[in-house]
Specification:
mainly alpha
Length: 421
């Protein structure tokens, strides 16, 4: 793989910037991201169908999904280093190809070898994890700085649409295709993710420059941590994410099914609340694509804190419509945070360390959710669901508020920007 060229200043643009949705290079990247998102969200659903068809046991399903998560977490940090050391496009290619190869291997092991399925699921997770920071850095290479907030909004809409449409499309296809064929279809989606995205346009390579000697993997990963520490707003944002994901999100994941069953006596509340969260996130992405608040960091932390209304609604004996509305608000808020967060990271972090810093974000976002789930369930058994929800709701409100007080958090920048991104 070729060395990643050092990004230079973006090309000058005269007049208002063209919509990112008219940029063919970005649309190719968006299509690849969407395909990877559909593949990611479809796999658990397809494996669930395998359980229903008795090709896989429930314990086997848990083992395979755990292996995928372990593969993701092991590869995301490695992928961040590789994407800063080599071509981001090449990292996307090879990691997505690895996930594409894993899908037929999972199909081959279905009903025959749980060991093969587990190993293939770990490979699929590794491919997914390695491509995430590379996709994030490739977005910065593909889109000019003035259009990155719109581009990040389009990217997050792709992820949320995949969350909403992936299981539904899979369910429709399952009416005429067997599980083995659906797994091959997931492999084809990963092939799209590997082959469709193009090279970034906002980099400049010096063909005569000699490649500089690179330190070892550990040293480069530590460089990424040091770069993250240079930005107090980034560390504050990670702390706020820890509170919302490990406490708020985990608590609602455990409590919502229980409350839907015990308080309301129906699964409708569970399904409606989760759908409302995804639809709210889509609306939030549409809103933030054009919204340019004067204090983007403070506005983003306010959006993140809005997740606290979800556990708060589950504490109170309210009408189920209120719970659904609270989840919609939480979904809107999470994207009011995510899009400015991604945009600021692409703007403020040193370009040659962007993928490594992004990998830290993904490690926190994905790595702490299982930890929170493991701790919340025993806490609910020990103290009851209402006290646990109260603590988690308070953390969702208070930790982002404290993070907003950290220097540089107001604008997600070391100095106040002269123009909005």
């Amino acid at each position: 793989m070729a060395s990643t060229p050092t990004p230079t200043a973006a090309k000058s643009e005269t007049g208002p910037p063209r919509s990112v949705l008219r940029d063919t290079t970005f649309l190719r990247l968006w299509a690849g991201t969407t395909a990877s998102g559909l593949a990611t969200w479809a796999l658990p659903f397809v494996l669930g169908l395998a359980v229903l068809h008795r090709d896989l046991s429930a314990a086997g399903l848990g083992l395979v999904l755990a292996a995928r998560t372990a593969g993701f977490l092991a590869a995301v940090a490695v992928g961040g280093v590789l994407a800063d050391r080599h071509s981001r496009r090449a990292v996307v290619l090879w990691s997505a190809l690895a996930a594409a190869v894993a899908a037929p291997l999972i199909a081959a092991g279905l009903g025959r070898s749980l060991v093969l399925m587990t190993a293939a699921a770990a490979l699929a997770g590794a491919g997914q994890g390695a491509c995430r920071p590379a996709f994030q850095a490739l977005t910065a290479e593909t889109v000019s700085p003035g259009r990155r907030q719109q581009a990040n909004a389009a990217m997050t809409m792709a992820v949320r649409s995949s969350t909403l449409a992936g299981p539904a499309l899979t369910a429709l296809l399952a009416a005429c295709l067997d599980v083995w064929s659906l797994l091959l279809g997931i492999g084809l989606l990963w092939l799209v993710a590997a082959l469709v995205p193009g090279k970034g346009a906002y980099t400049a390579a010096d063909p005569d420059a000699e490649p500089a000697p690179r330190p070892g993997f550990r040293a480069e990963f530590l460089e990424g941590i040091r770069e993250a520490r240079r930005h107090p707003w980034f560390l504050a944002g990670l702390a706020a994410l820890v509170a919302v994901i490990a406490l708020g999100y985990s608590a609602t994941s455990v409590a919502l099914p229980l409350i839907s069953r015990d308080r309301y006596g129906t699964e409708w509340v569970l399904a409606a609340a989760m759908t409302a969260y995804t639809v709210g996130a889509l609306c939030g992405a549409l809103l933030i694509a054009r919204l340019r608040p004067r204090s983007p960091g403070w506005a983003a932390f306010a959006g993140l804190a809005a997740y606290g209304v979800a556990p708060l609604s589950l504490m109170l004996p309210v009408h189920p419509v209120v719970v659904v509305a609270a989840y919609a608000v939480a979904g809107i808020g999470i994207e009011l945070f995510n899009v400015p967060w991604f945009t600021a990271t692409q703007r403020e972090v040193a370009p040659d360390k962007l993928a490594r810093v992004s990998s830290l974000d993904f490690l926190v976002s994905y790595g702490l959710a299982p930890v929170g789930l493991a701790l919340i369930a025993p806490a609910v058994d020990a103290f009851g669901v209402t006290p646990v929800l109260a603590v988690c709701a308070a953390a969702c409100f208070l930790v982002p508020a404290a993070a907003a007080l950290v220097p540089t958090s107001r604008h997600f920048a070391r100095t106040a920007p002269t123009t909005t991104d």
